[in-house]
Amino acid sequence: MSSKLPHLLGPGGFLQARREGASYMVENRPYVPSLIVDLNDETTVVNAAKVILSCAGGINADIETKSIRDTATAKVSIMSGGLTNALFRVDIDDGKQQSVTTSLLVRIFGAEGMIDRDKETANFARLCNAKGSVVHSQLDYLGRFGDGCVSGRVETLIPNMRAATICDLREKEDLVLEVTRQMARLHYGFDIPDYLLEKDTMGGEEGENNCCQPQPVLWDVLASWNDELITKISQACSSDLRLVNIFCSALFGDTLQFNSIAAHDDDDKRESALTEMMSHMAQQLNRETRWIQDHVSEHHPDAPIAFCHNDVNAGNILVDGRLDSGDSSCYDRDSVATIDYEYGALNYTMYDMANFICEHCGGNDNGIPDYKLMPSLELQRKLVQEYIEERDRVMDNAATKHGGEYEEVTKLLSQMQTFQMVSHLYWGTWGILQGASELLEGEYEIENIKSRIVGELDIDSWDNLRYGKNRLDRYRQHKQSMLETGQKQMSYLYNSGRL
After folding, report:
1. Per residue in 311-329, pLDDT tens?
2. Rounded to whole angstroms, how far apart are CA atoms 314 and 311?
3. Distance (Å, rounded) from C-alpha 495 to C-alpha 372?
4. In which element (H, E) is residue 24 found?
5. Which of 81, 252, 352, 437 gives 20 to 30 Å between its CA and that of 212?
């Protein structure tokens, strides 16, 4: 069946398929835009898994009617751990006498508008083409479905794996070292696709003469999130002015107050005051982004840029559960898998490392990171050394083995300290933006929103606004310490718990 589908490459291939309303092989995997999944109907999840598996060369199906023409049976179960996406495990039995069960992951995309799913899925396909050298040998992307609000893809499930925990990161240094090696292999072993270097990726074919030097997506993403955030906050506050100071508190730490808006009896004056306040908030957000971007450019002008994961946390690390009662020194590329590359993009390599350091503090369960769990400066230095050694193995480069290693470790460690601050700003903004979207969708009770943010209510459940506020609070603390002590002394204070 797959051989009958025409082939396209790059993010533009997905766009072309949707424009034509036709099924294509994009990045050598089937994309069926008209295949629809209903989150409340598990049979549609199973059908999506079966059709994609069929088109990828598994069982027999009719791609036009999107139906299965065999005796394969399946069961579906909801998987936990996805903050952004809805995850389903589908086990398909081929129905034969000596049955063979194929286990698949069906991922329904979330975070609508925040992630370019065409580019992200094309990236994931390229990564899976390099499985074994860059990603886990059993990690694979089988195909994509849907066009509109509910869309997603089908992936393989790696057997015997479980999600890592914050406790794993704290207690199993060999695991953390392997994850560090995997980041180095990703940064220096993955060939950056041409479309990530192109100025225009809207066509179905990759350009040949339109490439430029790698540029980090970090600043453009923050700028776009700032714009979207102001739009959503303005929409939310226009219906309930009590939200004004709540968002100000979450974003700026109670440094801005706009009580005068509510005092206007005249609707026109109140709307004008709200517009003025939103303009002021936008300036404040953009000023902060420009400040940290200028700081990076001034102090780390030659910071390396490569394709990065950008979201390596415990939930995005799988470990072989069979090692739980054994020797943790067995953690290697076969027993550890870094997954979920949906935020993967060109970025500063030490941002990837710094973000992983910050994720040791958790918070992905209740929105409250515990910064006492921050790895020591000694361990961070060890991780940087391991990173350099793995990078040199990938690049077959012996330069740092013959002098200069101490200087490079110190240099990269300094970059990591700065990019930890950037990580707090990035995910803090992300959390507030996600929370603002939920608020507009009616998922928050306005009467309880302040209590939830400060952790007085629903403390045992995830809360985007609470998480965003906590990360931004940490950003401000980190920035203040750096301004007071200077770049050289900041790392000591930060990692000795004095920040």
Report:
1. 999 999 999 999 987 765 6
2. 10
3. 9
4. strand 24-26
5. 352
**Cβ atoms within 10 Å of 302's Cβ, excluding its own:** 7
**What is the token pair recorded at 179?**
């994850």
DSSP structural state of residue 58: S
Q: How far is CA 214 from CA 190, 217, 221, in A?
A: 13, 9, 15
Fill in the DSSP letter of residue 150.
S
Q: Quick check: 138 and 161 in contact, CB under 8 A? A: no
- Cα dihedral 423, 429, 432, 438 sign: negative
- DSSP annotation string for 451-475: HHHTTSSSTTS--HHHHHHHHHHHH
CB 92: neighbour CB atoms within 10 A?
Answer: 22
- The rounded percent of the chain whose pLDDT value lies above 70 is 83
> What is the dihedral sign for C-alpha 348, 349, 355, 357?
negative
pLDDT tens digit sequence for 47-65:
999 999 888 764 444 444 4
Coil, strand or helix at 216:
coil
**Pairwise CA distance, residues 314 & 239, whole Å:** 38
28: tokens are 């050598």
Tokens of 456: 């007085």
In angstroms, the CA 376 to CA 172 distance is 14
What are the DSSP E strand ranges found in 114-255?
Answer: 141-145, 152-156, 161-163
Residue among 497, 455, 450 nearest 477 (CA):
497
pTM above the 0.90 mark?
no
